[in-house]
Amino acid sequence: MTRAARNGLADAAWGAGGVAVALALWELVPRTGLVSADYLPPVGAVARALGTELSDPAFLTALGDTLTGWALGLLIAVVAGVTAGIVLSVMPYLREVTASTVEFLRPIPSVALIPLAVLLYGTDLRSTLLLVVYAAFWQVLVQVLYGVADVDPVADETARSYGLGTWARIRYVLWPTALPYVMTGVRLAASVALVLAITAELVIGSPGIGARIAVAQTSQAVPEMYALVVVAGGLGLLVNVGARAVERRALAWHQSVRGEAVR
After folding, report:
1. What is residue 49's three-state secondary structure?
2. What is the DSSP string of 175-200?
3. What is the pLDDT of residue 169?
4. Which range has highest mean pLDDT (6-15, 27-36, 51-60)?
5. Whole-angstrom Cα distance, residue 102 to residue 100?
6. How many CA atoms lie within 13 A of 58 on its CB side?
7. b/e sequence 83-94, b meaning 16+ C-beta within 10 Å
8. Model's pTM, two decimal places?
9. What is the average pLDDT score of the chain?
10. Of 85, 107, 110, 108, which is closest to residue 98 (Cα–Cα)?
């Protein structure tokens, strides 16, 4: 077994141990009366509620709605962010013109757009997409801009001296340098997109896991509510793990990933 594999198993063991301790504490706190079981049901009650949810076709439909909003929003944000970042980078005058606009729009919280989303699209999937795309777009765009700024000017000038056109320089000089930054932006955007998708469902009422959490909360179905929250957390974990796996695969040639393999 390689050293990297041993380190991976050790990390997994520590992670599993932490989860086991957290679940044990969760079970003990309501059992011992430190917190009322009406507000924090034991793990067993939540597990039973989770089993009921998993066997409910309506839950699977809601899960599909959440994943659809997340995936579509993330795809649109990544394509738009990468395209806008490259265009702004190869046209310096355009970046100067839009700099103040970008700095004004970027800090606006996506949740502040909820009234606008409801006004435009109601509780439709498009409301979720509006919030997801807006939040995830900036994560990608900023990383692309950082990546392009890291391009070696000597390499760029050398490419120019060899007669490479704009698109050839983007492909052979700009893109390999910016790709690690792009993948970081995609990983961040994937998590942010899921948060906004569930938030939109929870607040707006668009179909998905978030809407089911809101219904469970208003109907005092506390174990079911916690079970759905656990599902949301599990989705976040899977998204993060999946994004990291894609990042490592896309950057298998990069020294940062090769360094991880050696360790």
Report:
1. helix
2. HHHHHHHHHHHHHHHHHHHHHHHHHH
3. 82
4. 51-60
5. 5
6. 8
7. ebbbebbeeeee
8. 0.86
9. 86
10. 85
Contacts 24+ apart (CB under 8 A), 117-125: 117/200, 117/204, 118/204, 123/204, 123/205, 123/206, 123/207, 124/206, 125/65, 125/68, 125/69, 125/206, 125/207
Count how many residues are written for the chain. Answer: 263
| pLDDT-based confidence at residue 168 (cuts at 50, 70, 90) | confident
Q: Which helix (H) or strand (E) holds 130?
A: helix 125-149
Task: Give the pair of three-digit tokens for residue 50.
Answer: 């989770």
First to last CA, the chain: 13
Cα–Cα distance between 170 and 61 in angstroms, integer? Answer: 42
CB contact burial 123-143 (16+ within 10 A = b; e otherwise)? bebebbbbbbbbbbbbbbbbb
Q: Which residue has the tokens 């994937």?
A: 190
**Residue 187 to residue 47: CA distance in whole angstroms:** 30
Contacts (Cβ under 8 Å, ≥6 apart) of 202: 210, 211, 213, 214
Which position has the token pair 């174990």? Answer: 223
Token pair listed for 17 = 């141990």
- One-letter amino acid for residue 128 of the chain: T
Across 119-228, the runs of DSSP E, i.e. the strands, are none
pLDDT digits (tens, 9 = 90+) for 83-100: 999 888 888 788 888 888
**What pLDDT is stored for residue 89 in this prediction?**
82
Q: Which tokens go with 154?
A: 């000597």
CB 193 within 8 A of CB 140: no
CA distances from 163 to 40, 101, 174 (A): 67, 34, 15
